[in-house]
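Appendix B, Record 12. Input sequence as logged:
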Amino acid sequence: MCKVMSIEKAWFLLKTKTRQEKRAMENLLRQNVDCYCPEAFVEKFLRGKKSQVIEILFPGYLFVNFRNSESSIQSVKNTRGVQSF
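Logged structural output:
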């Protein structure tokens, strides 16, 4: 028996430009591309005070699934904020 992976569940990794994960994500969402950028709360000392901040778990990377949209690989690669596919 042969198992075939569903195309809808095929996620890809994109390299973003430095500190432009959110920018790339916004532009990809406008193209109806599913994006995932995992974040976590981290306790840090800022100006001598302890505070919680949100940090991206994998800086410089986004997980995308564009099979359900009309976008092509080329349009995803040329999206503002994306460095490489």
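DSSP finds two helices and six strands in the chain.
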